[in-house]
Amino acid sequence: MAKEKFERNKPHVNVGTIGHVDHGKTTLTAALTRVCSEVFGSAKV
Predict the structure, then answer these.
(1) Cα(40)–Cα(27) distance, integer angstroms
(2) Residue 30, by phi and psi: left (phi above 0), alpha (psi -120 to 50) or beta?
(3) What residues have CB less than 8 Å from 25, skipping those under 6 apart?
């Protein structure tokens, strides 16, 4: 069974967060997403 080759044509960054409950992980992720959408446009986020 042949598999199609997955082609990545968009730049990407994996971000991991580790922290205790209620220490701002979701707030940080939301802020990063908002800034990226403002800088790069919402189509890339």
Answers:
(1) 20
(2) alpha
(3) 17, 19
